[in-house]
């Protein structure tokens, strides 16, 4: 139970990013159509598909690293993959935040901050 908070934070991040990556992967066209409209008046309007692919890869890497971090922490008390998962999660969230701010979607940006707080707490716990 000494690692309960760390495991719960990594599980939270893993669920968040694996589910989001799954959604982007299996509902690519729906996501792309929504995001093209969302970013139509921004500098990203011509690179939405590339940005979506980039975010998809980062989300999957973040989620997988968090899962491996949970396993590593549970099995050997190791913290390396947990730290990598938390850092990748934070970077991914910063990229999402940048996009929301660029699109002037301040409610969406505020929602991302809610996810960013546990990610930063995880970085602190694993550092």
Question: Topology of this structure?
Answer:
Blueprint: H1 4-26, H2 28-38, H3 48-76, H4 80-102, H5 106-126
Helix pairs in contact: 1-3, 1-4, 1-5, 3-4, 4-5
Structural features, described:
The chain has 127 residues and is an all-alpha fold. The chain has five helices and no strands. It has one domain. Helix 1 packs across helix 5 and helix 3 runs antiparallel to helix 4. The radius of gyration is 15 Å and the shape is elongated. This is DoxX family membrane protein. Keywords: Membrane, Transmembrane, Transmembrane helix. It is found in: Membrane. Pfam families: DoxX (PF07681).
Separation of the first and last Cα atoms: 19 Å
Number of strands: 0
> What is the percentage of strand-forming residues?
under 5%
Oligomer class: single chain
* H/E topology pattern: HHHHH
The shape is elongated
Instruction: Please state the average pLDDT score.
Output: 96
Radius of gyration: 15 Å
Question: What level of helicity do the residues show?
Answer: over 70%
The main sheet comes to: none
What is the total domain count?
A: 1
SSE-based structural type: mainly alpha
What attributes characterize this protein structure?
single chain, 127 residues, mainly alpha, 5 helices, transmembrane helix, transmembrane, DoxX
Briefly say what this structure is.
It holds the Pfam family DoxX. The chain has 127 residues and is an all-alpha fold.
